[in-house]
Write a structure and sequence with these properties.
The complex is a heterodimer of chains A (about 1250) and B (about 550). Chain A is built from 40 helices and 40 strands. With about 1250 residues, chain A is of the alpha/beta class. Chain A has a seven-stranded mixed β-sheet, with helices on both faces. Chain A has a six-stranded mixed β-sheet with strand order 21-23-22-25-19-24. In chain A, a hairpin with a 2-residue loop joins β2 and β3. With about 550 residues, chain B is an all-alpha fold. Chain B has 18 helices and two strands. Chain B starts with 5 loop residues before the first helix and ends with a helix. Classes of the chains: A alpha/beta (about 1250), B mainly alpha (about 550).
């Protein structure tokens, strides 16, 4: 949009009116000469005596008092006043801040609490930069340091100084405008009402006492001075592995000050495999940068690596992977993805061939694969490795499918694929397997093409758990007297065997510095609140080396009105390194000082450019030429011990990261309510098992058992998981156990990041903390062997947004074909003549796969004022002239204006959920809590439906289908609304008028897509899990019912059942996140996707101002489209033949979901195309390539005689049939299971 | 034999002194009261025990004038409390949100609309009896029409509550009405919910008018009796309260007098009354068909498999009559036992007739059930077929089979005469049918909604205590209103009832052999001579 090029630091002095020029010049001068001098008015800037008088008169008492307080604090700390240059030093600074606050209180400032960064501060009055128009958002570039390393560039939408939404920065090479769920949701972390709000000291006698920032700084600097003598002996710091050059510099300063201090770079879920593997292969740790392209990536093999999700490179990987999968014409080719993994991941869902395998056996498969591959490549120098591989003992097992392995290897070896393949290895695998993959990639000539390597910083490469283990030993030995935790939460997420919570309490002085409330802060002597990254200066480095600035969007929300602001982690580390309390800690200066070295000459100009663009120019590290040391890999591999097939007595364990990250985003309710991929569970992390293993171990979900017959229908009984105790390496944890199709047998999939106990009203007690089972150093990976599991008493409610796992044989919902079938039939168009109406319509390939190929077209008896092409079901016909417009004085409205439409590509959609979070953020969608989701009341406007096909143990595919309001041209909802609250617009959008809606819910009943969401309670305006009148009394009367999150930790009663008048309203802080362009819905109204109507109208106004005719293609994007990393969502004007969306709609893969109902959806879905290896599919599936359209003509009715279709061989085929078929349904193992397990189906 | 002139006989009868021409000797040897005569040539008596007009008036007015039976006040308090408690739940619902019900995004209607359709269906019998049977000159209706109409009114009150409270923002429910406004925004006239608003309000209004107008002569009777007692200084019942010198008769005279609209039993009044009654019957008759047809459009016009069915209008109407008659029977059979002499007016013949209607309409409903399945199969639409399979075998199978056994199987006992003339059996079947008809609506609404097109959005509905309480409250309201009706208003149409009594027969008393000559068809049982009786008795 046109606003993106504006940033707070670009002072457009030239544009100012003549009379102001002098003042702004003064302002700049003031800003640069002395950073301490902030000015809020011209008088203040000039520091006139009148202004001083004014201040004295206006606020004498408070000002002088606070002034004195500050001096006293400083005196206590034994530091003289007046440091920092300028008149008055820090007291003056405080004084001016007081002024700001006071003026705000007096109503003189328009937007209290919203402030520009100190150094370019502009009061929100008439001197505001002229590009600031109240009511119009501004976009600033910043970047987000991912908790797992790497970074993403962001554009932040701010409304009147208030950031409301995060978007990908199109100029950032990592994002290219896309954004991950974590980055999207991090804005909710900023406005988290449970954030740490002040410094708290835990004292011996008084308990927890709030302290001022000054007091902390004074106390800390005097305390830390004692280590200067010993060089830091006894001081330990646990800091997150945030990828930031300035922070790295600050770290160096700390280590320079205390060389003997222990610095633990800690990322709880990180594994050492990639770093150590690349170290083994190349001699130094490397970041693996995937660069898949259509031309150079034809075969991809992933060994348990979810490279599309929850890893630092997820966004570029998703973008580039999707690019290799895009099939638009029958001439297009697509890559082929083989995935070997233990449980379904986003990547596994995309696989053309997927092998489920226990994590320890994936190692075996890797060895076998290398043994098969390497001798055939004839790579010079690899002989040692081949020899070493031959020496590795691989216990045999039927779980490794030789056929799969060999065909996959042959595919990798095929001459046409030479140099166009890619092998990636995931975190469950040891370093040797990573090294092996490097060797194989080198041998297959992939390095520098699909994959390249850039140097990894030592801090990233440092082993987290080993370092923590060493530290724990030191603490145990009493060698550590001060422990500082920066941006980490080891009390919660340290491996269980360390007993870190107890060790932490043993340390005499502990300081925890965090943005969010967590267990470590709760336990620390000093709990210090940090500034959020949207509140502070900093920088980040992405995995490809790109450096990006972090600039504040808002003044720290919980900063004191007077005194020092909370520090960001960068500032905090710098504070630690600085000599004394009075040192000026200013992120801006720190970053600038660091960048001055990077950017070199003409610094100010390039600095401003970098702030504007959100990236430092020329910092993306060029791929480093690397060569694999086969000998070293061979030496490493020869020491590899490969485990045998896991058994019920010795289960394999794989740890994965859930939606709340490693736990730090647990209090972000959007992420809790985002369904986990595969299970679609929310607010929970049950341990996952394969159905067969669950049955074997007696851990199948409750309703599945015989002794619990089907009384689930009359009482609200939600799916119940069994509780079990899992023991691994002497540690045991009780958790719920749930089943998941496609899991490897005898494998437990454990999702980390849940089970927080001190996190806030959202996360407390949600899920299970499985860190307790993690092993320390040595294993290094996210997997382990030898776990046991035993049922324990109790059950646990599972809330899932989707209780059905299969399409129930309704295969026209997500239509999927194999590439050969598409290539063969994709260009064919079927003429379909309807005898009754005498009409002829054309069906493209995708429509031929569905009902329309054998049902007469529906004809509406109503005339649609916007579309005269009655009864023509083909959405591509929208631009045809009407049949009969003799009587129509005006042309059909569809031929005028702009007509919005959307396509969703189910081939590239990987189900990551970024669209859902983006939609929550853009459209002020409330979260409802676990119980409400269990009841089926989730509010997501765009949901991703997930279906499995094939066998329940080993599904053939996991299909994703994003469903949002499809904006039917013949909308069933519109006719039934009695109050005209949902009506059709002339641009084809189905409007939802909230203030006309009275909530009959008839529209939702009549919506075949079930995309309408009803506000059953005051979700939007009352506080989530908030307090209410008579809280204590009521909980006595009604005992534990689980509360809103099902955790029982906060509210025993579901607060939604409390009348809203008695409940806490949404707090001011949470309200600040709301997008002011979108209504916050009250209870009793229906809501649904609006195609981001606020963006359409914003664009319309903008284009009108610019005298454009209509909104140009690409002028704006819907929130989901903007976020989607795989570009699966395309939105635009379908009337414009050149628009991307009309091309996609015209594509042979485009079909109307449930189009046979003649709803004429404006959103069309695109057939999922899979690219199986012909050698790995059976005869039946290959047969389907010759005729993908085999619908049963009789719709499963045996009474109908077979016709040309029906004569085909029948249900022996293993489920890859995309048609209606009752046999298919009967065979569908998942069908019966989903009915039984999830309490929805009944009698076994 | 005394020879009283025929005119004088008639005058005596009209004055309530003389009895009609039927004597006790005409009784059926089998049933003992002649109500179950099978001889088509012989009209069974509609009022038993050869009452005089005076007795009839005394009995029926006595229900309102005599002290209430001992059970009445406790019953009223019980059901009144249920109603009041339910009112509190409605209050809770309104201030807290529709989420207190068990609804969700997959099942957006459940008990609310089930209850609505259920009560509207109950209301159908009243209008059918009063209007359709009136036009068809079914004289037996006179014994049941007043209470059936009252039941209609009360059922409509219960029914109308649910659309009002089921919306998300109840305080905005007025937006359903086509009120002129400056924005020129009208309701959506294409929406069946709006048609419902019109249909129900029309139906409620017409039913109320019909009921009230029919009551005017009887209210005047009550007024006159109270007035006469006051004039004669007869004890007019107990004084209302100690130290308050108002006698209940004064209240009665005032209230009934007000409601009687100055009715003076003049010939002209009767003439106007009869004409108006016919007109209202004519207006009501199509309403019997239209209201439930329109209610069925709520479902039939949608696109949901299981709802989108053309069979719905006739099927719903038949079902409504079916359920309505069952409810009439459920109310009248106990009343018949509890009130003195009520059996004289509500004879077994009445019960049998209604049982036969239940049997017929039950089979219509059963036919509709099977037809739905046939069409679902015949359509070849997979979604449609699944919806019906899911009804019978899905998670709500128990609701479906409850419905089938209650609605289709249980009325089949009425093929046996002994059962359809046994008030106890009839009561049980009526109870079953009432339950079954509630489940029919539940099955249609919930099983269709909970598994619609996309399996990803399949869900379940579970009622909450609020759901249950509000339904129970509607039953409480209904019974409370009916108890009040039984206590304070003429339970039978006295004037109409007299017209179908033998005493109203213009024939002179006795054995003059003029019987069966077509005069006042059906007004009097055949009082023929001895030869006819043995033949009848031999049946």
């Amino acid at each position: 949009m046109s606003q993106i090029d504006q940033c707070p630091s670009t002072t457009k002095g030239e544009k100012k009116r003549a009379g102001k020029a002098e003042l702004s010049a003064m302002a700049r001068a003031a800003g640069t000469v002395n950073g301490n001098r902030v000015w809020r008015s011209v008088d203040e800037l000039a520091d006139t005596s009148e202004f001083r008088d004014f201040l004295e008169r206006e606020f004498p008492a408070g000002a002088s008092e606070l002034d004195r307080a500050t001096r006293e604090d400083a005196a206590m700390a034994g530091v003289g006043a007046g440091v920092g240059g300028g008149v008055g030093g820090e007291t003056r600074r405080d004084f001016i801040k007081l002024m700001g606050a006071s003026i705000a209180l007096a109503g003189a400032a328009t937007i209290p609490g919203c402030r520009r960064p100190d150094h370019k501060i502009m009061p929100y009055s008439k001197d505001v930069p002229e590009e600031v128009i109240p009511g119009k958002p501004l976009f600033y570039a910043t970047s987000f340091a991912r908790p797992d390393g790497g970074a993403e560039g962001l554009l932040v939408e701010t409304h009147e100084g208030r950031p409301t939404k995060l978007e990908g920065n199109p100029l950032h090479p990592i994002n290219r405008g896309k954004v991950s769920t974590w980055a999207l949701a991090s804005i909710m972390g900023l406005y988290d009402p449970d954030r740490l709000k002040m410094v708290i000291e835990s004292t011996l006698h008084e308990g927890k006492v709030g302290r001022s920032e000054q007091a902390f700084r004074a106390a800390a600097s005097s305390h830390l001075k004692q280590y200067d003598a010993t060089g830091g002996e006894g001081l330990a710091i646990i800091a997150s592995k945030k990828s930031s050059p300035s922070r790295e510099a600050a770290r160096q300063q700390v280590l320079a000050r205390w060389p003997k201090a222990t610095w633990v770079a800690y990322a709880p879920a990180q594994t050492t495999g990639p770093a150590e593997g690349t170290r083994l292969a190349f001699g130094s740790p490397m970041n693996e940068v995937l660069n898949m392209t259509r031309e150079h990536t034809r075969v991809i093999l992933s060994l348990d690596r979810d490279f599309l999700h929850k890893e630092p490179g997820e966004i570029p990987n998703a973008i580039s992977f999707a690019a290799t999968r895009l099939v638009l014409t029958t001439a297009d080719d697509m890559s082929r993805l083989y995935v070997v993994e233990s449980g379904y991941t986003v990547t596994g869902g995309q696989a053309d061939h997927r092998l489920r395998l226990a994590p320890s056996r994936i190692t075996a498969l890797a060895v076998e694969l290398a043994r098969f591959l390497l001798p055939k490549v004839h790579e010079p120098g690899a002989e040692d490795l081949i020899g070493a591989l031959a020496g590795v003992a691989v216990p045999a097992g039927a779980d490794i499918d030789r056929h799969f392995l060999e065909e996959c290897a042959k595919d990798l070896l095929a001459p046409e694929n030479r140099g166009k393949t890619l092998i990636v290895v995931g975190p469950s695998q040891p370093a040797e397997v990573h090294a092996l993959a490097c060797a194989l990639n080198a041998a297959l000539d992939n390095i520098g093409k699909s994959v390249s390597y850039s140097p990894m910083s030592e801090e990233s490469a440092a082993p987290s758990l080993a370092a923590l283990e060493t530290l724990a030993a030191k603490i145990g030995a009493g060698q550590i007297s001060t422990l500082v935790c920066i941006d980490t939460n080891p009390v919660y997420d340290a491996p269980g065997h360390l007993n870190f919570g107890e060790l932490f309490a043993k340390v005499p002085t502990t300081i925890a510095h965090n943005v969010e409330l967590n267990e470590t802060n709760n336990a620390a002597t000093w709990s210090v609140n940090a500034a959020h990254y949207l509140e502070s200066w900093g920088d980040t480095q992405a995995i490809d080396g790109t450096i990006a600035p972090v600039q504040p969007m808002i003044a720290p929300l919980y900063g004191p009105a007077v005194g020092l602001q909370p520090m960001s982690d960068l500032e905090f580390i710098t504070f630690l390194a600085s000599a004394d309390v009075a040192a000026r800690i200013d992120g801006y200066e720190i970053v600038r000082a660091n960048w001055r070295r990077t950017l070199g000459t003409n610094f100010d100009r390039s600095w401003r450019r970098a702030l504007h663009d959100g990236v430092a120019p020329g910092t993306g590290a060029a791929a480093q030429a690397v060569s694999v040391n086969y000998g070293a890999v061979g030496a490493g591999v020869s020491g590899l011990k490969v485990a045998g097939v896991p058994s019920a007595a010795a289960l394999d364990v794989a740890f994965v990261i859930g939606n709340p990250g490693d736990g730090r985003y647990a209090n972000v309710a959007w992420l809790q309510e985002l369904p986990e991929v595969g299970t679609r569970t929310v607010w929970d992390n049950p341990v996952l098992l394969s159905p067969a293993t669950a049955v074997e171990l007696g851990l199948e979900p409750e309703a599945f058992t015989v002794e619990n017959p089907s009384n689930v229908y009359t009482e609200p009984k939600y799916p119940q998981a069994r509780m079990a105790e899992i023991t691994l390496g002497g540690q045991s944890v009780k958790a719920a156990v749930w089943i998941m199709p496609g899991m490897a047998d005898h494998t437990l999939l454990m999702t980390l990041g849940y089970g927080r106990t001190v996190a806030g009203r959202v996360a407390d007690g949600v899920g299970f903390n499985l860190y307790g089972l993690r092993r320390g150093a040595g294993e290094g990976s996210r997997s382990a062997s030898g776990a046991t599991i035993a049922p324990v008493a109790g059950s646990h409610m599972i809330a899932s947004t989707q209780n059905h796992w299969t399409m129930e044989g309704r295969t026209s919902i997500v239509r999927a074909v194999d590439l050969p079938a598409f290539k063969k039939f994709g260009d064919e168009v079927q003429k379909h003549t309807d005898e009754f109406y005498g009409r002829e319509s054309q069906l493209n390939f995708a429509e031929r796969l569905g009902e329309l190929s054998h049902t007469p077209p529906n004809a509406s008896i109503y005339e649609n004022p916007y579309n005269r092409s009655i009864g023509d079901p083909d959405p591509a016909n929208v631009q045809k002239p009407p049949d009969d417009n003799i009587h129509q004085p005006t042309p059909p409205l569809y031929l005028v204006g702009q007509q919005w439409g959307m396509t969703i590509d189910q081939t590239t959609c990987n189900g990551c959920g970024a669209c859902t979070i983006a939609c929550y953020s853009e459209n002020n969608i409330p979260v409802v809590g676990k119980k409400e989701v269990a009841k089926g009341r989730e509010m997501a406007w765009i949901r991703v439906d997930r279906y499995f096909t094939g066998d329940v143990e080993n599904p053939q595919a996991m299909l994703h289908q994003p469903v949002l309001c499809v904006h039917c041209e013949n909308a069933p909802c519109e006719t039934v609304c009695p109050v005209n609250a949902t009506v059709h617009g002339p641009e084809g959008i189905n409007y939802m008028t909230y203030n006309r809606c009275i909530g009959t819910r008839y529209c939702a009943n009549n919506c075949p897509y079930k995309v309408r969401r009803f506000n059953f309670f005051d979700y939007g305006v009352t506080k989530f899990n908030g307090d209410y009148l008579g809280h204590d009394l009521l909980e006595q009367v009604v005992p534990n019912t689980g509360g809103i999150t099902g955790s029982g930790a906060h509210n025993k009663i579901n607060p939604n059942l409390i009348p809203p008048r008695l409940r806490e309203k949404l707090d001011e802080i949470s309200r600040m996140q709301k997008n002011p362009d979108v209504t916050v819905r009250s209870r009793g109204v229906m809501e649904k996707c609006s195609y981001c109507i606020q963006r359409i109208n914003g664009a319309k106004i903008e284009t009108k101002l610019q005298n454009l005719k209509g909104i140009p293609e690409g002028f704006f994007q819907t929130a989901c489209q903007q976020a989607c990393p795989s570009n699966s969502i395309v939105f635009g004007d379908i009337r414009n033949p050149d628009s991307a969306v009309s091309k996609m709609r015209g594509n042979a893969r485009s079909y109307a979901l449930l189009g046979y109902l003649n709803t004429r959806p404006r959103t069309s879905h695109m057939v999922r195309v899979m690219n199986p290896n012909p050698k790995l599919v059976d005869e039946a599936r290959r047969h389907s390539w010759e005729n993908p359209f085999h619908h049963e003509p009789g719709h499963g009715d045996p009474g109908h005689g077979p016709d040309s279709h029906g004569a085909e061989p029948r249900p022996s085929e293993p489920g890859h049939t995309f048609r209606f078929d009752k046999h298919r349904r009967a065979e569908d193992g998942g069908y019966a299971l989903s009915l039984n397990v999830l309490g929805a189906g009944g009698r076994a | 034999m005394t020879t009283v002139p025929p005119d004088q006989v008639m005058a005596q009868r009209l004055a309530g002194i003389a009895r009609g021409p039927v004597a006790g000797r005409d009784l059926d040897p089998v049933t003992g009261d002649g109500t179950l005569l099978d001889d088509p040539a012989v009209r069974p008596p509609l009022v038993l025990n050869n009452r005089t007009f005076g007795e009839v008036t005394d009995i029926i007015c006595g229900y309102a004038e005599n002290p209430a039976p001992r059970w009445w006040l406790p019953a009223l308090m019980f059901f009144g409390s249920i109603a009041g408690l339910g009112g509190m739940f409605i209050g809770y619902l309104v201030i807290t949100g529709i989420g207190t019900w068990g609804l969700n995004n997959q099942v957006d209607w459940a008990w609310d609309i089930t209850n609505f359709v259920f009560w509207i269906g109950i209301g159908h019998a009243g209008t059918l009896i009063s209007a359709v049977l009136c036009l068809l000159k079914q004289k037996w209706r006179t014994a049941v029409n007043r209470s059936a109409e009252a039941m209609t009114i009360f059922a409509v009150i219960c029914a109308a509550t649910f659309p009002g409270i089921h919306v998300g923002r109840q305080w905005m429910a007025w937006m359903l009405l086509p009120l002129p406004n400056s924005n020129n925004i009208w309701p959506n006239f294409r929406s069946p919910l709006l048609w419902d608003v019109f249909a129900i309000s029309t139906y409620g209004t017409v039913s109320l008018l019909f009921w009230y107008m029919g009551m005017i002569p009887d209210l005047a009777t009550l007024r006159d009796r109270a007035d006469r007692r006051l004039r004669r200084q007869v004890e007019g019942g107990p004084i209302l309260l100690p130290f308050v010198p108002i006698r209940t008769d004064k209240i009665r005279a005032f209230v009934y007098g007000f409601l009687a609209l100055g009715w003076r039993f003049s010939g002209r009044h009767w003439h106007r009354y009869e004409a108006a009654y016919l007109v209202l019957a004519g207006i009501s008759t199509p309403l019997v068909l239209s209201v439930h047809s329109i209610v069925s459009f709520d479902f039939a016009t949608s696109i949901l498999p299981g709802w989108h069915t053309t069979i719905f209008p006739p099927y719903f109407v038949a079902g409504a009559i079916f359920g309505g008659f069952a409810m009439v029977l459920m109310l009248l059979i106990p009343a018949r036992e509890l009130y003195p002499h009520m059996k004289d007016f509500l004879t077994l013949r009445h019960l049998e007739n209604m049982a036969k209607i239940i049997l017929v309409t039950g089979m219509i409903v059963g036919f509709a059930y099977s037809m739905e399945f046939f069409i679902a199969w015949y359509s070849g639409n997979d979604y449609e077929l699944y919806a019906f399979k899911n009804r019978a075998a899905g998670p709500y199978w128990w609701a479906y089979w409850t419905m089938i056994s209650c609605n289709v199987l249980s009325p089949q006992v009425f093929w046996v005469r002994r059962f359809r003339t046994s008030p106890f059996i009839i009561f049980l079947v009526s109870l079953a049918v009432t339950i079954g008809m509630w489940f029919e609506r539940f099955v249609i609404i919930v099983t269709s909604l909970h598994r619609a097109f996309l399996p990803a959005e399949w869900g379940m509905f579970h009622p909450t205590p609020v759901d249950i309480a509000i339904f129970t409250a509607s039953v409480g309201v209904f019974v409370t209103l009916f108890l009040l009706f039984m206590r304070f208003l003429p339970v039978f149409a006295i004037a109409e009832l007299k017209a179908v009594m033998p005493a109203a027969s213009p024939h002179p008393h006795g054995h003059d052999g003029h019987g069966g000559d077509g005069h006042a068809a059906g007004a009097a049982p055949h009082n023929g001579h001895a030869p006819s009786l043995p033949a009848k008795g031999a049946h």
